[in-house]
Design brief:
single chain; mainly alpha; 9 helices; globular
């Protein structure tokens, strides 16, 4: 669904409703993959994660080569490297499914519970940081540094958001009210 939306629409605004709905496909695919990946298999899981990372590394390399050669046509490149593009969708499914197959002994439940809010914060954090930090360094150093910085700042904002929500929810029972309004049991 996201790939079809990417190839059939042009966006005047970043995060307009049409663009936002392109990501619904990821949630649907994640739900399906979560239901179908029942057996843990570390070898398959690691292979799938590495395959997904390989796809992303190839795309990054192509972007780097195009950028260094002065071929920076963002419209053409976004069709293959944008959030809903076929290679990115394939890599996302491989990485998600691979991680769901891994038999991990550590407890990541707190981090897993914050993944959605980390995801929601990361785009804004990236926009702010990329305007503040305008270091002219080798992209092979800057990109990993920015990825880690964006992740940890988004994680910190997610922790603050969850604490804020818990205080508000305990005070005004927002979850109970919302669930009762839409007909769910809380």
């Amino acid at each position: 669904m996201s790939t079809i939306g990417l190839f059939t629409s042009s966006h005047e605004l970043m995060w307009d409703p049409g663009y936002s709905f392109e990501f619904v496909g990821y949630f649907i695919m994640g739900s399906i993959m979560g239901q179908t990946t029942d057996r843990k298999n570390n070898k398959k899981g690691i292979g799938m994660v590495l395959s997904g990372f390989l796809v992303m590394m190839i795309l990054s390399w192509l972007l780097y080569i195009n950028g260094t050669n002065g071929i920076g046509n963002a419209y053409t490149l976004s069709k293959w490297t944008g959030a809903g593009s076929p290679p990115v969708a394939i890599a996302s499914v491989l990485i998600f499914t691979g991680f769901s197959k891994l038999d991990v002994k550590m407890d990541f439940s707190k981090l897993a519970g914050m993944c959605f809010t980390i995801y929601l914060f990361h785009a804004g954090v990236w926009d702010v940081i990329s305007k503040i930090i305008t270091v002219k360094m080798d992209s092979r150093i800057v990109i990993p540094m920015m990825v880690l910085l964006v992740f940890f700042l988004s994680w910190a904002l997610s922790i603050v958001w969850h604490r804020f929500w818990n205080v508000m929810d305990n005070r005004w029972k927002l979850s109970n009210r919302l669930c009762s309004r839409i007909g769910l049991k809380s």
